[in-house]
Input
Amino acid sequence: MAKKQKWTVTSDTGTHTVEYTPRTLFSRAKIKIDENTYPLYSARLFGESQEAFKLGDEMAVISVAKNRRASLTVSGEIIPSDE
Output
């Protein structure tokens, strides 16, 4: 079972915290950016997906693999998970 993942990203606008909660059979995947939570509509239960969003002034993409593990890319750079 996939677990929550957390990243700490430092950008020109400050330090941001990104937390990914994987989808379950009965709930939608969520991404928490700083203190705001958003549903990931593109996240599938048994498929790969990507969703782009702004992190300060930079573009970020969260990619979810078939095993429901996520990776975060900010301005073309892969950010390692805090865990």
User: Anything to note?
Assistant: Residues 15 and 80 are 15 Å apart (CA to CA). The mean pLDDT is 85. The chain has one domain: 5-79.
